[in-house]
Amino acid sequence: MARGARQDAWEFFGAELKRRREAAGMTQGELGRRVFVSGGYIGQFEQAIRKPQLDVAQRIDETLQTDGFFERLCRTLIDKSPYAHYFAPVAELERLATKICEFEPAVIPGLLQTPEYARAVTLASNPLATSEYVDEAVRARMDRKRILQNSGQPEYWAILHETALRVPVGSSAEMAEQLDHVSSLMRERQLLLQVLPFAAGAYAQMGKPLRLMEFEDAPPTAYTEAVYSGNLLDDPAVVKRAQSAYDLLRVAALSPKASLALLESAAEDYRRCASTT
Question: Which residues form the HTH cro/C1-type domain (predicted)?
């Protein structure tokens, strides 16, 4: 399903939610309290600004007695997303965020990947996938990157463990191109990036990716990921702990200037390797 068609479907979801909520005689705040989100969230669902997670859609059905209507519609839209079902809500929220802070312990973040790097990552996890599957996965990842090219782009801060620089993904030439791409974005001031070096030793969130997102008119969220699953968290106490963990990563990482020098040095190492093979 193309992005425009998906957006139309979410707008239908929102319109139906508003119609059925009003038919039940509930305000946005009342419905929000019953399904454990804010009234502002309900308003954003109704305007198709924000997409509900599946468990929220299920609670809406229970509250409005809609016989699974919103759960079924939500499942259909998630299934037709080009992203993994657990990541689809995160990809939608990225477009609304005013600030994104991300930590990756082993790979270059998706928002910074080149097509060749994204293809190598996809094939590593799906060695028997069809060309169509791989092409769609790469297209979806490149589509996500557009938020960093918009005039209203979110403030983007990334922390990478040095592992992400040293493990070759694709050929040496492709890895050099990937690191050059990140370096170029840093020099163009499209993001703030720090590298957590091997010398830092043990660190907060050891081996676990973390993403924090802030919004203009909604509470911040945290996202963590495991094997074929993800957790999108908006409990204020949990998000606050995640923010504290990210602060610890910041202070342990190299400065942006030193990080850029390390990126450029690693890229040069890959270039030398490529020239000798």
Answer: 17-69
pTM exceeding the 0.85 threshold for the entire prediction:
no
Beta-carbon neighbour count of residue 14 at 10 Å? 21
Q: Which residues contact 253 (CB under 8 A, 6 or more apart)?
A: 159, 194, 195, 196, 197, 200, 259
**CA dist list (Å): 202 to 105, 247, 248, 253:** 12, 15, 11, 12
- Please, are residues 178 and 116 in contact by the beta-carbon 8 Å criterion? yes
Residue 246 has phi, psi (to 5 degrees) of -65, -35
Place of tokens 């990552």: 121
CB-based contacts of 91: which residues, under 8 Å, 6+ apart?
81, 83, 144
pLDDT tens for each residue of 54-95: 889 999 999 999 999 998 888 777 666 778 777 877 887 888
Q: Where are the beta strands (DSSP E) in the chain?
A: 99-104, 155-161, 192-196, 210-214, 221-226, 229-233
Q: Compute the distance between CA of residue 242 and CA of residue 106 in angstroms, rounded to an integer.
A: 19
Domains and CATH numbers, the chain: 3-79 (1.10.260.40), 88-112+148-275 (3.30.870.10)
